[in-house]
Structures are given as C-alpha cells and as structure tokens.
Amino acid sequence: MIASVRGTVTAITLDHVVVEVGGVGLAIRTTPSTLAGLRRGEEARLATTLVVREDSLTLFGFASDESKELFELVQSVSGVGPKIALALIAVLEPEELRRALASGDYNTLTRAPGIGRKGAERLVLELRDKVGVVSTATASGGPAAAVAWRPKLSEALVGLGFTVKQADDAIATLASDTEDAAVRDGDVGLLLRRALGLLGRHR
C-alpha cells in the first residue's frame, strides 16, 4: 500500500497530477480542489491509496488524511467504486460528507455525480454509524457564501493554469444563473467542476 507521496509536481491536468519521487513520475488521480492547490515545480505531499483492478493500478491522492479515509470508507458500500467515491470527495467537504451520512441528508449526497436516491439511502444505511462524531454546526450557505465563492473559484482556476480572463468569463457565466442552488449556496467544489466543463470546451 502506498500511503502517501511527497515529491515535486511536474504536471497538472484536469483529473490528475504527476509527482516525481526518486526519479519516478507517479500519476495520481485527485479532485479539482486538490489540483487547484498544487503548483508545477513545487513540492507536494498527498495522502494516497492504491486501487488494484485486474487490468489496472490507479493511485488516488488527497490533500488530507481525512479525505482519504472517507474515500476508502464509502467504497465499502456495495455498488460504490473509486469513481463515485472520488465524486463524493470532490463535491463535498469531509465534514459535510460525514454530516450528510450521519443525518441521512439524501439531498446533499445526491449532489455528487453518480449518486441517486437509492444510492444515497444505501450509503446512509451502511455508514451512518461508521462516520464518527460530526459537528452540529449548520452547513455553509446563505448570502455570505454566495459572495465568497467568486474569489475562491477564480484562484482555483488560475492555479490550474487558466488565465484570469478565462476564469472571470467562466465565473460570469455561472453567476448569471441566479436560480442555481450551487450559486446561491456558494458550493465552490460543484462550481469548480462546472467551470472546468465550460473551459474545457474552449481548449
């Protein structure tokens, strides 16, 4: 098991980073928000887990040990593989995911691509008692969150190699949909995924 990786970032793409360790470049699948915090030429440390399949070996990396633990935990549920597990980690912060599992918040869980109502119910049923103690604080949202997401999203996009103008154009497009719950609540993870989809069309 490769529990963690520390080395120089040599490449960043839309879904993985290459970290050079001892002269070997390791391709590590990760989330958009984790990629946004990395810089080419700088040292990075990622908590990792190796997923072994008959025809592949895939290394997944996370900015925190907690995210890695949740990634592994949700895969203990029947029908949940690494793709869906990574989507959950990408869309929901660790504390938000724990709270949704512990409280049976199906609406929050179904925000992740690949998770429907039945899948959310199965996750809650099997993991409700395994996620540990969660904070009773109210989840982020409201007017303050709606204002704060723009600079955070801009910084993330620029960190992934897009220009400030490209970032601003994508943000303007997303912000124009005032009925979008992600825009109202300031869901940076989900908005980042949508922005990457918009910008990917013009690359």
UniProtKB/TrEMBL annotation:
Record keywords: ATP-binding, Cytoplasm, DNA damage, DNA recombination, DNA repair, DNA-binding, Helicase, Hydrolase, Nucleotide-binding
Top-level taxon in the UniProt lineage: Bacteria
Q: Name one GO molecular function term.
A: ATP binding
Q: Where is the Helix-hairpin-helix DNA-binding motif class domain?
A: 72-91, 107-126
Keyword check for DNA damage:
yes
A GO BP annotation = DNA recombination
Task: Give the UniProt subcellular location, in the record's own words.
Answer: Cytoplasm
Q: Which SUPFAM superfamilies match?
A: DNA helicase RuvA subunit, C-terminal domain, Nucleic acid-binding proteins, RuvA domain 2-like
Record flagged with keyword DNA damage: yes
Classification via Gene3D superfamilies: 5' to 3' exonuclease, C-terminal subdomain, DNA helicase RuvA subunit, C-terminal domain, Nucleic acid-binding proteins
What does the sequence similarity comment in the record state about its family?
Belongs to the RuvA family.
Q: What does this protein do?
A: The RuvA-RuvB-RuvC complex processes Holliday junction (HJ) DNA during genetic recombination and DNA repair, while the RuvA-RuvB complex plays an important role in the rescue of blocked DNA replication forks via replication fork reversal (RFR). RuvA specifically binds to HJ cruciform DNA, conferring on it an open structure. The RuvB hexamer acts as an ATP-dependent pump, pulling dsDNA into and through the RuvAB complex. HJ branch migration allows RuvC to scan DNA until it finds its consensus sequence, where it cleaves and resolves the cruciform DNA.
* Subunit structure comment from the entry: Homotetramer. Forms an RuvA(8)-RuvB(12)-Holliday junction (HJ) complex. HJ DNA is sandwiched between 2 RuvA tetramers; dsDNA enters through RuvA and exits via RuvB. An RuvB hexamer assembles on each DNA strand where it exits the tetramer. Each RuvB hexamer is contacted by two RuvA subunits (via domain III) on 2 adjacent RuvB subunits; this complex drives branch migration. In the full resolvosome a probable DNA-RuvA(4)-RuvB(12)-RuvC(2) complex forms which resolves the HJ.
Its UniProt domain note says: Has three domains with a flexible linker between the domains II and III and assumes an 'L' shape. Domain III is highly mobile and contacts RuvB.
Name this polypeptide is given: Holliday junction branch migration complex subunit RuvA
